[in-house]
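Issue 218. Parser rejects a valid record. Input:
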Amino acid sequence: MPLNENEWYIEAPWGRICIIAWGDCLNPPVLLCHGSLDSAATFRPLVAMLPENFYYIAMEFPGNGKSDWFPPGLMLSSYDLVYPIAVVVEHFRWQKFVYMAHSFGTIIGKLYNLSYPGKISKVINLDPTPNLLTVPADEFSEWYHFYFSKFYEKYETLNTPKETGPIYTYQEAIDTLKKKRDLTDELAAATLERISEPVCKHMIRFTFDQRMKLVTRPPFSPDSLQSLFTSIPTPTLSIIAEQSIDNGRYDRALFKLDEKAFPLKNYSIPTPTLSIIAEQSIDNGRYDRALFKLDEKAFPLKNYSIPTPTLSIIAEQSIDNGRYDRALFKLDEKAFPLKNYR
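Output the parser choked on:
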C-alpha cells in the first residue's frame, strides 16, 4: 500500500520552505534532500520502494521546487543551504534523524553534520560527487574566477526575477529537462510540475532561482577533504553511480570509493551481487520463504542480478555466410562460464 503524501510549508526568516511528507509522523524520521536545481518530486519513485515504518520528509531548498527564494542580489554558497535544514529539524523538534540525499544534497548534508554534530543518526548518500568540493592549491585562482568573477559578470542574468524569464511550451520545457538532466518522460513531468508556472495559454516558465546554477562550493584541498569527511563518526551508506566514476567525478576523492579509507569503519558501499540459482533448488521449494531472491526488482539498490538462461537458435546459413566469424563464442556453450547458454 502506498504511503499517504502530504505537502505544506514551513516558515523561515527569508520566506517559506516547501516540504512533502510520506507516512506516519510517529515513525522515525528520514529527511530527504535533493540535488542541484531539483525538487522533492525526485524522491517519489524511491519512497514507494522504501519500508513503511519510517516518516519521510522531503524538503526543497530555497529557490528550488516551490520553496521561496533567498533575498535577491546575494551570492549564494553551500553554507547558506545548511541553515534551511536546521529550520526543518527545529520545526519537527527532531532529536535524531536519518539523512538521505542525492548529489549536491549530500554535500549540504555533510556540512550540516559537521555544523550540528550528533543530530544525524545515519546517512544514505545517493551518488555523492566529492569533486565539487576538491580544489588543489594550484587551482584556487580557477575556483575563484569560476564562482566569484562569473557571478558578477552575469549578475543581471542570475538575479533576473522569474517574471521576466523566457517562456516555453510544455513540450519544450519537458525536452529541456530530459536533455539537461537525462530524465525519463515521467520524472521530467513530475519535476516540471514543481519548478514551473503557467504564463498564458499553452505557455509556461521556470520558477527556480537562477543563482542556484552557481552556488559556491568550499575549496577544500584533496587531503583536507579526506581528513574532514573520514572524521565524521555517523554510519554512512553511499550508493555510487558507475557513470559518475567513469566520468571522473571521484578522481580527486578516491577515498569515497574505498571503505578502508574510513578509520572509524562506519562507511559502506553496497557490493554488487550475482546469484546463480539452480532450477532444482526452486523446484524443491528452497526459495519458497524467500521469493525475493528470485526477483532482481526486489532489491531497490539495483545491485543484485540473476543470470538469465539463454537459448540461441542459430541458422546454418548464417554460419556459412560468416555472420559469426567475429563472435565465435556464440557457437560455443563452454565459452559461457555461468553455464546458462545453450
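Fixed in the parser; the record now loads. The first helix runs from residue 44 to 47.
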